[in-house]
Write a structure and sequence with these properties.
With 293 residues, this protein is mostly helical. Among the domains are: 88-223, Serine Threonine Protein Phosphatase 5, Tetratricopeptide repeat, CATH 1.25.40; 230-293, no CATH class. It has 14 helices and two strands. Strands 1-2 form a two-stranded antiparallel ribbon.
């Protein structure tokens, strides 16, 4: 009978049996680790898929003009999968549409951490800064957006429009007129008549009153109820001493928007001018028969 070969205090059979158990344990551990990883990957993929579905649903509601509903879907998508940075872009756009500047800026900055050179996010940041009265900073982002956007892209027209508005606020009508004209060239009717009103103001600041009047009338062709355009035409008429037309324009502006302060102030000033005519001994109803209306 053969004697068992000893390895320390264990037989060779026991030694190999232990090694086999250790190898099996390692194998099972690796299998379990892989399974956990696979499960996590599947769950992550599932979360991302659900988030993408919520994101697309939100975009549909946003397209239909239901911004509040869209925001709800975007927030749900962000909760499901926070790494989906496209959600921040959509939320920024929606909150900006509602002029909720604080929230728009918050999502804008989060998106810019990943995509700092995105023309769209630079456009939104420029608009946010414009409404925050930081016009110089706004111009930096708007210029960056304009440079990167395609030539006929509607967003490029928006970038030029807000650049023009910034230059107007900064007292630079020449640059304002250039930007606003380029915006109109790219997209003549995008944004409504507002850009035409601003362009007219730029021409007026440059002393080009006839051109300003033409542009203001163009704005009224697009929207007869734009109180700013009526007020601006009144100011223009007043500047050439056509008080009758100025008075009528200010009245028209206030008929549309009774709370419009500029038209209120201008109307009072014109009426004071009428009274000064009376003090000079002229018959106000003869000089200005429309005052009887």
């Amino acid at each position: 009978m053969k004697k068992a070969v000893m390895t320390g205090k264990l037989t060779r059979h026991e030694y190999y049996n232990i090694r086999l158990h250790k190898m099996c344990a390692k194998l099972f551990f690796c299998f379990e680790t892989c399974w956990v990883g696979i499960r996590e990957f599947v769950l992550l993929f599932s979360k991302k898929t659900r988030a993408m579905r919520l994101l697309r649903t939100g975009e549909i509601f946003e397209f239909q003009g239901e911004t509040d509903v869209a925001i709800d879907y975007f927030e749900q998508a962000l909760g499901k999968y926070p790494k989906l940075i496209e959600t921040h872009l959509n939320l920024c756009r929606c909150y900006l549409r509602l002029l909720s500047l604080k929230k728009a800026r918050e999502h804008c900055l989060k998106y810019m951490e990943k995509e700092p050179d995105s023309p769209e996010i630079n456009l939104y940041m420029g608009v946010i800064l414009y409404y925050g009265n930081k016009w110089d900073d706004a111009l930096v982002h708007l210029s960056k957006a304009e440079e990167r956007l395609p030539a006929r892209e509607k967003k490029k027209a928006s970038a030029f429009e807000y650049m023009g508005e910034c230059y107007l606020k900064l007292g630079n009508p020449e640059e304002a007129v250039t930007c606003l004209e380029r915006s109109i060239q790219v997209n003549p009717y995008g944004g409504g008549e507002k850009k035409y009103v601003s362009l007219g103001e730029g021409y007026y600041m440059l002393g080009k009153k006839e051109e300003a009047l033409r542009i203001f009338k163009k704005a009224l062709e697009m929207n007869q109820r734009n109180h700013e355009a009526w007020n601006n035409i009144g100011v223009l008429m007043w500047s050439v001493n056509n008080l009758e037309s100025a008075y009528k324009c200010f009245r028209k502006s206030l008929d549309i928007n009774p709370e419009y302060r500029e038209a209120q102030t201008n109307l009072v000033s014109v009426e004071e001018g009428m009274r000064s005519v009376m003090k000079n001994g002229r018959n106000i109803t003869k000089s200005f028969p429309w005052m009887q209306q």
